[in-house]
Amino acid sequence: MLFPGVEENLAGRTKKAVQTWVSVLLVLVSLSGLVIWLECRPRERDRLTPQMAGARDTLIRVLLLHNVERFRVQITNELSLRDVGKGHSVSLKDLGHLHHIDIGLVRGRLTLAGHPIDVDHLEIHFGPPGIFSMEGERFRGQLEVIVDGAGTAFDVINHLPLEPYLAGVVGAEMPSYWEPEALKAQAIASRTYCLYIKERFGRHRSWDMSRTQAHQVYRGIAAESATVWDAVHATRGQILVTDGRDGTPIVLPTYYSSIWAGHTEDSNRVFGEASVVLRGVECWSCEDVAKATQFNWPEVIYSKQEVSQRLLARYPALRELGAVHEIVPIRQSEYDHFTRFTQVRLVGTTGRSSVLRAEDLRLAIDPSGRRIKSTGCRLEDRGEHWAFVQGRGWGHAVGMCQCGAQGLARAGLSVQDILVHYYPGARIGRRP
Predict the structure, then answer these.
(1) Does residue 45 lie in a domain region?
(2) Percent of the chain with pLDDT over 70
(3) Residue ranges in 345-387 assigned as alpha helix (H)
(4) If 358 and its partner were Cys, which of 37, 53, 368, 375 is the partner (CB 3.0–4.6 Å)?
(5) 256: β partners
(6) How confident is the model at residue 342, as a pLDDT?
């Protein structure tokens, strides 16, 4: 028998528990209904790719695939093919109804779905909304396929307008949920860098930009979001410039990378390019944004044999050294809490030596740049191994620190304040 009052108390609690569970079940039913509605509703139509009618020479040419022998294009909308060499269209009527086209190479000529077409330079044009799918990825614009001179492989190049290109870059280079002013800074830096590379190198080759960190990462539609498009639209046409001797605006090489961890570096010390705009500045705003394991990264060890092999493979001229058995930092920058070496001397078993930029050394040993994250570290000789210890930061350390830009934006600085900090002496102008 229960004590007086306890029975009534338990009954009240039981009633409240039942009510709670009923409420939970109602919420779950509502959520499941929402999920079903989201899955069943029609997909939002893709945004029409803007500016596709612009002049051909204003388009950005992005190298998607290099030296390949085959790739696949998914057919999701109308497409047409053009033989650039002969200047006429290529018929698709013999291919039947296909969901995709495999483009390959036989005896120096391209094939479509296994059918030879006797073409070595092909353009693929896609109808509205100007979007195509390739190897599981979606991109805007058109495609160009160019067979190399030897007829053994081909390049696949994406042609698209500058602003849609940037929408596929900004969200790949910087998290799309970061502060709007940081995203705007990224958009302006990426736009400027693209135009600089296109003007300096694009005229001498069939493409302007690679899609990797060698230039800037481009992921196409997968990188797009509303916040990214907002940043691109808000800064449309804006680039960073400095005035030349005659007052003519000069487009800058707006280098940038992830984390500078205390101080950026003079461009002359890293890339051999003297520039007042690309001189080193303090950068502590990245510390509260970057991951701890990237701001300060753990030691990395390579065998001396592996280091030597990778250096000689990357730079054949170094073979006169024999095996590289000594690496001596000969130029470095000293800061309050760390040292960044910028030039090294390599000594070989033949007794010969050679000088190499530290950034080139880093990427020759670790092409991914994900293990030896920077040259802001100490190099230790451990007998049969080299150890990179007390590492700080991620990237070459020239120009804008991306995590630093986010830190400054969090502190309330404008896009102009952020860019002028990292590119002192530069100003925001308009593209030519």
Answers:
(1) no
(2) 88
(3) 358-365
(4) 375
(5) 400
(6) 96
Q: Round the CA-based radius of gyration of the chain to a whole number and report it.
A: 28
Give domain status of residue 345, yes or no.
yes
**Rounded to two decimals, what is the model's pTM?**
0.86
Q: Tally the residues of the chain.
A: 432
Q: How far apart are CA 225 and CA 180, in angstroms?
A: 12
In a domain, 36, yes or no: no
261 and 131 housed in the same domain: no
What integer pLDDT is reported at residue 94 of this predicted model?
63
Residues 278, 410 share a domain: yes
Looking at residue 163, what is its pLDDT?
96
The predicted structure's pLDDT at residue 27: 44
Helix, strand, or coil (residue 45)? coil
| 184/282 same-domain check | yes
The overall average pLDDT reported for the chain is: 88
Q: With the CA atoms of 297, 301, 306 and 307 taken in that order, what torsion angle do they form, in degrees rounded to the nearest 10? A: 60
Q: What is the mean pLDDT of residues 235-263?
A: 92
Side-chain-side CA neighbours of 25 within 13 Å: the count stands at 6
Instruction: Please say if the pLDDT value at position 415 is more than 60.
Output: yes
Residue 208 lies in a domain: yes
CA distance 147 to 120: 5
Interaxial angle between packed helices 162-173 and 180-200, expressed in degrees from 0 to 180 and rounded to the nearest 10: 120
Please tell me the predicted confidence (pLDDT) of residue 23. Answer: 58
Range(s) of the domain holding residue 205: 164-286+398-430
Pair 282, 407 in one domain: yes
Query: How many Cα atoms within 13 Å fall on the side-chain side of residue 174?
Result: 35
Number of domains in the chain: 3
Please check whether residues 121 and 209 belong to one and the same domain. Answer: no
